[in-house]
Amino acid sequence: MDEEAPVGHVVHLVRAFDETGAPARAGFGTRLRPGARSVLWMLITLAALGTVWLVVALWTDGPPWWFGVIFTLMPAFFVFGCAVALGESGRLSRREGRLAERWALTRERATSTGGRVSDREVSLMEHGGVSAFTLTVAGDAGWSIRARWHRSNPDNRDEALLQTQIPAIGSRVRIWSVGMPDDDAPVIVQALDASVVA
Higher model confidence: residue 19 or residue 69? Predict the structure, then answer.
């Protein structure tokens, strides 16, 4: 499947299902803090000003036209790409913050339903450890959702997750949501660590 999991759908890999209630936190990945984002915006602004200065100097110096085009487009696209990526990171951070607040306010009303893993996709790091995985889960009521486990979640940062720990297709899961799960609401999929189940 090529479809991304919605931002608000997260997987909690657990050793056993918690019978006491809904998870306390949604558990989104770590994003840049506002101070770090401000510093990066300042650096991008300086890079843009430097690029403008270099382009002006390049075109007034009289190099071949193709040379000027290449060295005008390359730095411009780089600075533009950095600005777009930083802007998207800020947008996702704000959305995750709103979803985390929503979960904190509504988790007392959250209910769980059962489901099974129908598909999974795994992203690996250079050394073979798992950096993220996405589960497609079929709920017992007949609907299907996708949720993602992130290594950048503070609860998962120190975990050296192996592929054998990822829930297999057909594994039971517990899906926590307030009302019917949808793409705009926080949904937590609790999945059992496959190495514990085995």
Answer: 69
